[in-house]
């Protein structure tokens, strides 16, 4: 009669059990049945954590295994007598775990469940991932790397698993320049709660202005917007680039505090045309004086040569002085000026050629001055006329130079843009 009643109770419990889980109770011992019911809940959690849906977890009374078999398990796996009852059932019935005997030995449902899974791990190590009954939270966040504070204590950085005691806990997830996330959780024994946290960036305002010259500004590589501009941005570090026609571009970083208005005042420096002096030639000439001597049959006439030189240095200084409003450089110029001055006994002639950075001729100008006839100071007259020709060439060339657009690249160190940053309440 007692045996029939026991089988009836066993079949009834199995009928409403979860698929793949056999629940058998020993109804003759109420205290033992209570512990078995508690162990059942813990078994569910361990089974879910390990993905062992096809493994039957049996809570039942079971006989001890054959003593010789128990001795072999104890000898080969160095197990204590507390694990042997479950091992006997696993050995005899396959992937079935008996908890009643373990509960009886341990007197604790959690320890019995963990012992049972340790036994199963020996039989099927490829199936069991978590043989220890864990209580805590598994937390991840977007973006990752956030600080996790549990009950006021620093507990890790997302993603992370945190073991906690059963009961109530306060959880905080913190990320610089993001809104704080607070949650309250209640944990039961063997419960591992998964938390996915979406962190929202704190809002801030960024105002960009220029000193009277409209600029184009790009923030973090985005499309350019004109100034003045008021931008709704995320708190944190941002990279800007600003430019305007005829000015040197500038770029830099600005840190925008959360819930604040950050004002950036940018004053760009006008770009200067970069001019290079190319070929320069200043040539004098060779003159001849007629000489004679003797008389009658002994009278001789011959040509005596003389040299007139033009000093190139004063002419170069004149060129550099006239071009001082531009940047005189040798590498990567916007344009190149080449000058040739040559003379004979009657004229001083000059030619200046302006080419762009690609070597295309943009302008050619010429000038000429007469040399005075039989000057008492031909050397000085040639130098003076050469400098007059240079002035004339420059007078024709400078208006053309002013039509060139300089390449507005990053300013040289001595001509950086002025940037002023202030933070205030919005």
Ends distance: 84 Å
Radius of gyration: 48 Å
Strand content: 35-45%
Overall geometry: rod-shaped
Number of strands: 24
Total number of domains: 4
| Order of strands in the sheet with most strands | 20-17-21-22-23
Briefly say what this structure is.
This protein is an alpha+beta fold and 426 residues long. The chain has helices at 2-15, 30-50, 67-77, 84-93, 100-106, 109-123, 312-322, 378-401, and strands at 56-58, 96-98, 136-142, 147-150, 153-157, 160-163, 167-174, 181-187, 192-198, 203-210, 216-219, 225-226, 229-234, 236-243, 250-256, 261-267, 274-283, 285-293, 300-308, 327-328, 335-343, 347-356, 361-370, 418-424. It is built from eight helices and 24 strands.
Please describe the topology of this protein.
Blueprint: H1 2-15, H2 30-50, E1 56-58, H3 67-77, H4 84-93, E2 96-98, H5 100-106, H6 109-123, E3 136-142, E4 147-150, E5 153-157, E6 160-163, E7 167-174, E8 181-187, E9 192-198, E10 203-210, E11 216-219, E12 225-226, E13 229-234, E14 236-243, E15 250-256, E16 261-267, E17 274-283, E18 285-293, E19 300-308, H7 312-322, E20 327-328, E21 335-343, E22 347-356, E23 361-370, H8 378-401, E24 418-424
Parallel strand pairs: 1-2, 3-9, 10-16, 17-20, 17-21
Antiparallel strand pairs: 3-6, 4-5, 4-7, 7-8, 10-13, 11-12, 11-14, 14-15, 16-24, 18-19, 21-22, 22-23
